[in-house]
Amino acid sequence: MTATDPALTALAQGWCALSALHGRIEAHIERALQAQHDLSVREYSLLDVLSRQHDGEGGHLQMKQVADAVVLSQSATTRLVTRLEDRGLLERYLCPTDRRGIYTNVTEAGLRLLEEAQPTNDTALREALDQASKNPELAPLVRVVESLSVPA
Q1: What percent of the chain has pLDDT over 90?
Q2: What is the pLDDT of residue 152?
Q3: Helices (H), strands (E): how many in the chain?
Q4: Which 3 state secondary structure label does DSSP give 150?
Q5: Nearest alpha-carbon partner for 106 in 50, 31, 26, 49
Q6: What are the φ/ψ torsions at residue 95 (nearest 5 degrees)?
Q7: Residue 12 exposed, middle or buried by CB count within 10 Å (0-12, 13-18, 19+)
Q8: What integer best gives the mean pLDDT of the chain?
Q9: Which of 13, 3, 8, 32 is nearest to 131 (CA)?
Q10: Across the chain, which distance is largest between two alpha carbons, in Å?
Q11: Number of other CB atoms surrounding residue 148 within 10 Å
């Protein structure tokens, strides 16, 4: 394939549409979470990921797993964890079986904020998808997103 190949051009256009959809959704959710809960999309995502951990064998995520889940570098994830820890929404502690390992847990305050922010997140997501569905380039992608079923 060459740079002028129609299949490559269509692929690039599809990628641009997907990127645009993601950007619109994230920006809409960001505005809603910031306005109502003083929370960024990344902060919300991190609280959500960490709230799904459980105690016991394999119940805690390593920082690399957390970074992958919130789509950030490990250093950016560490800064994000520190910011939320400073706000009293997260706490870190040493792994009881490996003193080199550090776990991060959502505090009660973090769980309350996450619970309060979830309806805002869900409503903003729905609004962003509804708005994007009116755009002919984005409508097919919205339909795909709406058809996805992710196991809990």
Answers
A1: 64
A2: 57
A3: 6, 2
A4: coil
A5: 50
A6: -65, 130
A7: exposed
A8: 89
A9: 32
A10: 58
A11: 6
- Count of alpha carbons within 13 Å of 83, Cβ hemisphere only? 14
Q: Is the Cα torsion angle 35, 36, 41, 46 positive or negative in sign?
A: positive
Both structure tokens of 133: 């569905």
Tell me the pLDDT tens digit for each residue of 72-84.
998 999 999 999 9
| HEC assignment per residue over 4-59 | CCHHHHHHHHHHHHHHHHHHHHHHHHHHHHHHHHCCCHHHHHHHHHHHCCCCCCCC
Residue count of the chain: 152
Rg (CA), the chain: 19
* 142: its two tokens: 């919205």
- 78 in helix, strand or coil? helix
Task: Look at 1-5, 34-38, 56-60 and tell me which has the smallest mean pLDDT.
Answer: 1-5
Cα(144)–Cα(14) distance, integer angstroms? 13
Confidence of residue 58 (pLDDT cuts 50, 70, 90): low
Residue for token pair 């009881």:
96
